[in-house]
Each structure stands twice: as structure tokens, then as C-alpha cells.
Amino acid sequence: MKPIGIFGGTFDPIHFGHLRLAEEMAEALELATVHFIPAGTPPHRTRPRTDAHHRLQMVQLAIAGNPRFVLDNREVGLPRLSFTVETLASLRDELGTTQPLCLLLGADAFLGLTTWHRWQDLFALAHIAVAHRPGFPQSTWKDAMPEVLRAELEARMAHPQDLTSAAAGLLVTRPITALDISATHIRDTLRAARSPRYLLPNVVLDYIQANQLYLPEN
Ligand SMILES: Nc1ncnc2c1ncn2[C@@H]1O[C@H](COP(=O)(O)OP(=O)(O)OP(=O)(O)O)[C@@H](O)[C@H]1O
Ligand SMILES: O=C(O)c1ccc[n+]([C@@H]2O[C@H](COP(=O)([O-])O)[C@@H](O)[C@H]2O)c1
Fold it and tell me: In terms of residue numbers, what domain contains 20?
């Protein structure tokens, strides 16, 4: 059974770094689908400045036309913090115990994994696939990673083709096209009244402009 990719993010706004990660991981790991799950109230950072309905809409516009990409709004409706372990548990309840699930993370998110709520339980619910990200070269991961996470990496390291052999519990790391794009940079660019064109899809930029998001005073 092909794995289903789970890709959570604040997506404030979604950009080509996110979309290439999802596309290249879907191809390399032969994912059936990738579920984009915008965070409601993320546990680890200040509340996103942009309303969830705008972030959902921008993801919807960005992934339209890609038959493998799906928008999943289960986190934004939550009246509380959205913890990934709970999101994966709810997906597991829906999809059954045998369906391989694969949580997609950029390297920066992976390096912070031990700070996540019940992080060690994540491996019982899904595989984890880590994409390289500019600024976080793999040669520095070992030093940047707590010893407990390094032990998990060594014990669980697998190849993409192994992900169909179990429903959860394996770790893969993949180089992807290095795009040094961040939502922070896009927000800063817009607030400075400069153009972020070609860092994100035109439909998303059109939406941002039509809805006057990321203005200098916001
Ligand atoms: N350019 C990129 N290359 C690889 N992974 C990325 C890239 N941008 C984001 N990601 C990954 O996508 C996921 C969601 O990221 P997020 O929505 O926080 O985007 P961001 O650009 O890092 O945002 P911000 O600048 O607001 O922190 C995370 O796992 C993150 O590591
Ligand atoms: O569950 C947690 O404790 C947890 C802590 C930090 C981040 N996450 C999730 O990781 C994903 C990427 O986060 P971010 O900040 O890079 O957008 C997003 O889905 C967050 O909800 C989850």
C-alpha cells in the first residue's frame, strides 16, 4: 500500500519551498497523496498573524490542479493548540492501522522534534521523512541534534522503498531542490512594499494583494 504524506505547516503564506518539498517527496517516496494541514494555533510559536481561513484559502489555491495534493482543515477548527501527535492519531483512526503514513518535515522542523508534545509517540503513528533545507546542511545535523534524536535517527533510518513494509516507525532523509525561501522573508518583503514575485505562486500573491494581507501596518 502506498504511503500517504502528511505535511503540516503554518503556511503564512504557502510558497514554492513548501510545494517543491511536497512534490519531490511525493515522487521519491511514491506517496499516494499529500495532505496539507495548515496549523490552527501552533504549539511552538506566536499565533499566526493571518487568519486561518486566509491560510487555508492560499493553500487551496496553491495546490489546485495537482491530483496528489489534498487540503485537510482538521487543525484550523480546533479550539485549542494543534499538536501533531493528535493530528496523526485522528488520521490513523480514519485510515486504519495498516495504511502507511509519512510525516513530511523540513530539516529545521526535524531538528526541533524533541521539543514537540509526546514526540516519541509520533513514530508509533507515522514514518518521518526529512527534507534538506538551505541553512540546515546535513553535515551539521549531528551537532545540532540532541543525543536522543540522533539515536532515533540511527535506529530508524530506512530507504524510501521500505516505507510500504510498515505502517509507521521509519525515518528517511532526502535532498530536495534547495530553495532558500521562507514565509518570514516573504512577509518581510511585503511589509517593506517590495515584490515577493517568483517566490510563491502568482495565484497566492494575487490573493494576498486582493485581501490586503501582510501590509506594513499588519
Ligand atoms: N524552503 C524550504 N525548504 C525545505 N523545507 C521547507 C522550506 N520552507 C518550509 N519548509 C518546511 O515546511 C514545513 C512548514 O514550514 P512553515 O509553514 O513554518 O514555513 P516557513 O517558511 O519555515 O515559515 P516561517 O518563515 O514563518 O517560519 C516545515 O516542516 C518546514 O521545515
Ligand atoms: O506537536 C507539536 O508539539 C509541534 C511542535 C512544533 C511544530 N509542530 C508542527 O510542525 C509543523 C511545522 O511547523 P512550522 O512552525 O514549521 O510551520 C506544523 O504542522 C506544526 O503544527 C508541532
Answer: 4-182
CA-closest residue to ligand 1 atom 7: 17
In a domain, 27, yes or no: yes
Residue in 62, 20, 13 with CA at minimum distance from that of residue 178: 20
Q: Domain for residue 189, yes or no? A: no
Q: What ipTM goes with this model?
A: 0.99
Instruction: Output the ligand 2 site: residues, CB below 6 A.
Output: 8-10, 39, 42-45, 82-85, 109, 116-117
* 79 is a domain residue: yes
The residues, any chain, with a CB within 8 Å of residue 148's CB and separated by 6 or more, are: 114
Number of structural domains found in the chain? 1
Which residue out of 6, 10, 55 has the highest number of ligand 1 atoms within 8 Å of its CB and is therefore the one to mutate?
10
Could you tell me if residue 32 is inside a domain? yes
Query: What's the grid cell of residue 12?
Result: 503564512
CB 32 within 8 A of CB 4: yes
User: 71 and 34 in contact (C-beta within 8 Å)?
Assistant: no
Atom of ligand 1 nearest to the CA of 7: 13
Tens-digit pLDDT profile for residues 133-180: 999 999 999 899 999 999 999 999 999 999 999 999 999 999 999 999
- Going by alpha carbons, the residue nearest to atom 28 of ligand 1 is 106
Write the pLDDT tens digit of every residue in 54-113. 999 999 999 999 999 999 999 998 877 889 999 999 999 999 999 999 999 999 999 999
User: At residue 127, what are phi and psi to the nearest 5 degrees?
Assistant: -75, 165
CATH of the domain at 88: 3.40.50.620
